Amino acid sequence: MYSFEIVRPTSLADAVAALGQDEAQALAGGQTLIPSLKQRLAQPSVLVSLTAIAEMQGVSAEGGVLTLGGGTTHGTVAREAAAHYPALAALASNIGDPAVRNRGTVGGSLANNDPAACYPAAALASGATIVTNSREIAMEDYFQGMFTTALEEGEIITAVRFPIPEKAAYIKFEQPASRFALVGVFVAKFADGVRVAVTGASEEGVFRWTEAEEALSGNFSATALDGLTVSADGLMSDIHGSSAYRAHLIGVLTKRAVAAAA
């Protein structure tokens, strides 16, 4: 890698100030950024580590909402969210390997918005709210395409609020080397309806399958999805699977997620 400075602020205010420097970039868990630095795909002059900011850590639940600090690791979510939101904890427990789970963070994953990442599906299906150092962003406004979000330059995800559903489950078909989702489906049943979010499949990133939501809101069972299909148009096609294969997987995994939740 090339030469750069690294700072490790202990408060959110200091982190925001540090990110105001020219060519500064935030460093959360670093699971995507560090490989990018090695390949010189990113070349910041200053890295601002967010790992020592206590106010961005932790898991709490109150009033039917689970709040995760933006700097909370996947491993911590897997352990501490299980009593409040089991489906989300199970998702976190199956990200990468132990090394990734003990370094990668919720905020880092959602800020990066990898089209095959797991957290975007959970956040979109849950109707979560992104909390930053300057505002709150509804999930419907947050994701804006592959690796693109509503975050502005220097904005930091400090917390994510997940409304806790009545029932939920996440099922993914893994790419075996990376354990990213070739396709992943998160189903969440709330009192006022069902939300279904799909990751790993679309060229635009995570999306909601509205036809499935309508069917499941009337009958929360796998049979309610009989006859429903997803168009392969706009889905990814690569060495791991064609767009048609991914479209088929969406239907299969959604049924499995509903069965697991029910």
TrEMBL record:
Q: Which GO terms describe its molecular function?
A: FAD binding; oxidoreductase activity
Q: Does the keyword Flavoprotein apply?
A: yes
Residue ranges annotated for the FAD-binding PCMH-type domain, each copy included:
1-167
Kindly name one Pfam family recorded for this protein.
FAD_binding_5
Give the InterPro entries listed for this entry.
Answer: CO_DH_flav_C (IPR005107), CO_DH_flav_C_dom_sf (IPR036683), Diverse_Substr_Oxidored (IPR051312), FAD-bd_PCMH (IPR016166), FAD-bd_PCMH-like_sf (IPR036318), FAD-bd_PCMH_sub1 (IPR016167), FAD-bd_PCMH_sub2 (IPR016169), Mopterin_DH_FAD-bd (IPR002346)
Could you tell me which PANTHER family the record lists for this protein?
XANTHINE DEHYDROGENASE SUBUNIT C-RELATED
This protein's name? Carbon-monoxide dehydrogenase medium subunit
* Organism in which the protein naturally occurs: Salipiger marinus
